[in-house]
Write a structure and sequence with these properties.
The protein has 297 residues and is mainly alpha-helical. It is 70% helix and 0% strand. The radius of gyration is 27 Å and the shape is globular.
Length: 297
């Protein structure tokens, strides 16, 4: 007798998800893109207009004739070219704050990662809790502190408070804990290396992504800082761009002069170019730093 073998059951192929987006997803993406890009488009259109065209023409399209060259000339020559001084001030404040915050956060993160001491976790939790304190609540104590130190109306009054970043400390401790093995640290100490040598020559190259991430956050925060310079500086030659453009807007509107709306918009556009340059040039570092910090956290 011959035994017949039953054919294996045919398994229906699993349906693959359709490539692309659904119409609802496309609509949501289009709305998000419009919400994000329309303000930038308005800025690009506005810098080609004068004040009269700003209110008499369609806001999202160019007017004829264009006034970009005239707006630029007014921007860089008004008040003896103080706009360029404000630009240099912002570069100084943001650059010094970024470099200092990177070093302070890296050093503090190294200390929390490399050493065990009494109250370590409680102190770290207390530092992290300060993230919840609004920055505006700290302005008055900072003003009184800078007044006692005699630093009002100096660049240090803006730079020094930006050097300490609880979030930067948190990020750098994550990177030190996960990116710098204790075995490597102990081996270096056995070979006679001190903490400064270990920190500078061995550790910093391994946590480079975290350093760039902290530096970029500090740079953006210092560049956009408005309230602290408003309180601790009253000399126009020390203003950053954010404060200087605001003062221009208020004084030109209240003094009976012709408002500088389109000129100020052009200045605001110039003020965001360094931020775009920083993010584009260091994007591969800070994106990797954020993703690594998320995984390690």
């Amino acid at each position: 007798m011959t035994l017949s073998r039953s054919a294996p059951a045919q398994v229906a192929p699993r349906a693959r998800p359709r490539p692309g987006f659904t119409p609802l997803q496309l609509l949501a993406l289009a709305l998000f893109a419009a919400y994000s890009l329309l303000p930038l488009w308005w800025v690009l259109v506005t810098i080609f207009k004068d004040n009269g065209q700003l209110f008499s023409t369609f806001g999202l399209w160019f007017a004829s004739p264009g006034h970009l060259a005239q707006n630029w000339h007014t921007l860089v020559t008004r008040d003896d070219g103080i706009f360029l001084r404000w630009l240099l001030n912002s570069v100084l404040y943001a650059g010094a704050s970024a470099i200092g915050s990177m070093f302070v956060s890296a050093a503090a993160g190294y200390a929390f990662s490399a050493y065990d001491f009494r109250g370590k976790n409680a102190l770290f939790a207390l530092i992290l809790a300060t993230i919840m304190v609004p920055g505006t609540a700290l302005v008055l104590p900072l003003f009184l502190m800078m007044q006692k130190l005699g630093l009002l109306n100096t660049s240090w009054a803006v730079i020094l408070p930006a050097l300490v970043s609880p979030f930067g400390l948190y990020l750098m401790r994550l990177f030190w804990d996960a990116g710098f093995p204790r075995e490597l640290m102990e081996a270096a100490r056995i070979d006679g290396a001190g903490d400064w040598t270990i920190f500078r020559q061995l550790g910093l190259p391994l946590v480079r992504g975290g350093l760039v991430t902290v530096g970029l956050f500090a740079f953006v925060g210092a560049w956009n800082n408005f309230f602290l310079p408003l309180v601790v500086i009253n000399r126009s030659e020390l203003f950053p761009l954010t404060l200087g453009l605001s003062v221009w807007n208020q004084t030109s509107s209240s003094s009976g002069q012709e408002p500088l709306y389109t000129v100020i918009v052009l200045g605001a556009l110039v003020s965001i170019l360094p931020l775009l340059l920083a993010f584009l040039s260091l994007g591969r570092f800070w994106q990797g730093g954020l993703s690594s910090g998320a995984v390690k956290g």
